[in-house]
Write a structure and sequence with these properties.
single chain, alpha/beta, Rossmann fold, 2 domains, 7-stranded mixed sheet, 5-stranded parallel sheet, 7 helices, 14 strands
């Protein structure tokens, strides 16, 4: 049995549990799960956690299921909230990823599936966590590009994962890059590509998250300065808080999954997670 809390996001197959949910006038989420489902079959839950209200709905749904005698099995939350806040950079900040993990741990699912975790901190904090890598996602991206590419690591944080992607794909060349970020302002500077000449090769930047896109636009300029040909961007979790206009000036195609939201326009090529989990 599956409870898809976001009806626009159904990454797991199976018979669905019906429910209704709404928001009280005071701002509290509420849910009513229909009782006509097999209580002897374990229940999996899927949810995109893009806000505390989404987390609240998950907590309420889990409580309702437990009160109905349901057996909880798997929780699928592909984009783990606050995964980038996995260390305290300046005094006065919370360790946000731990706050989310602590709450989810109280729900007592047998397994929690996360797609392409930002760092090793999330699975370390999350009980019974199973991380699905981005390997098959990037494999599909390269198939859609339909030409030989080299993989671009945007910074040191992505480097370990991108070499694993390269190994999975048979040893595609990897080019390392770096940048500097002011932890107080978030401003990005000092983009570097550690290759003297890219000799007109097509380049695929691979990363886990695209928020505003500043990292990738800064790198695009430097890659062109090193004689790169066509540029492509593949991010597992596409937030795209500043839209696509500027990104599309730099990249032939942008690829993402539906882990964070579903995009209806033509600005991005989206691969459904039900093909990857």
């Amino acid at each position: 049995m599956i409870l898809h809390l976001d009806q626009n996001f159904k990454p797991l197959p199976g018979k669905e549990i019906a429910f209704e949910h709404f928001m009280f006038s005071g701002g509290e989420p509420h849910i009513k799960i229909h009782a006509d489902f097999d209580r002897t079959t374990p229940v999996s839950v899927t949810q995109r956690l893009n806000s505390f209200n989404d987390l609240g709905l998950l907590c309420l749904a889990t409580d309702a299921l437990q009160r109905m005698g349901a057996k909880l099995d798997t929780l699928v939350i592909p984009y783990f909230p606050a995964a980038r806040q996995d260390r305290v950079m300046i005094p006065g900040e919370p360790l946000s990823v731990k706050v989310y993990a602590d709450i989810i741990n109280t729900l007592n699912f047998k397994k929690v599936i996360v797609f392409d975790a930002h760092s090793e901190v999330t699975p370390a904090l999350l009980n019974n966590c199973e991380v699905v890598t981005n390997h098959h996602f990037i494999q599909q991206v390269i198939t859609k590009i339909a030409k030989e590419v080299i993989l671009i690591s945007p910074d040191g944080g992505a480097l370990k994962k991108i070499y694993k992607v390269s190994e999975f794909l048979g040893g595609i060349d990897v080019v390392e890059c770096s940048k500097s970020r002011d932890v107080k302002t978030g401003k990005l500077t000092g983009f570097k590509v550690y290759e003297n000449d890219l000799h007109g090769k097509a380049c695929l930047i691979v990363d886990d998250i695209c928020d505003g896109g500043g990292t990738f636009m800064g790198l695009a300029k430097e890659l062109k300065n090193k004689n790169a040909d066509s540029l492509y961007l593949a991010v597992s979790h596409g937030i795209f808080s500043k839209g696509f206009e500027e990104l599309n000036k730099n990249f032939e195609n942008i690829f993402t999954t539906n882990s964070f939201k579903t995009f209806d326009g033509q600005e991005v090529i989206q691969i459904d997670l039900k093909e990857l989990l």
